[in-house]
Amino acid sequence: MINLSLNKDQGYVILSINGPISVFDMENLTDEVDHYIEDFGKLAGLIIMVKKFPGWDNLDSFFHHVKFVKDHHKLISKVGFMTEDNLIKSFPSLANHFVKAELKRFDDGQMDEAVEWICSH
């Protein structure tokens, strides 16, 4: 389950992941991001808050996630991960080889730092 908050003024989305990711979650995220990009051309970034990655509801939700990354990684400038999960902590260094967006990890509670980084040009 993803709770989504779009800051239209500064052009970033905060995603709080609290359970397995569903097709509905990915469709909702895609719709929000696509509407913003239609109006402004690019999204400054995503901040993904997740204690421990919960996985996906099913294979279809996984494919929706992969499609979102494939379709949007050139249209989102930065992705910040706020987590204490050791697996996710290593994700930015691995994913940098596959996506255009700049990736960075933040400790739990560093929301101000993550927003400042996302909004810096």
UniProtKB/TrEMBL annotation:
Quote the SUPFAM superfamilies the UniProt record gives: SpoIIaa-like
| InterPro entries, per database record | SpoIIAA-like, SpoIIAA-like_sf, STAS_dom_sf
Q: Which Gene3D superfamilies match?
A: SpoIIaa-like domains
The name this protein carries in UniProt is STAS/SEC14 domain-containing protein
Q: Which organism is it from?
A: Reichenbachiella carrageenanivorans
Q: What is the lineage of its organism?
A: Bacteria, Pseudomonadati, Bacteroidota, Cytophagia, Cytophagales
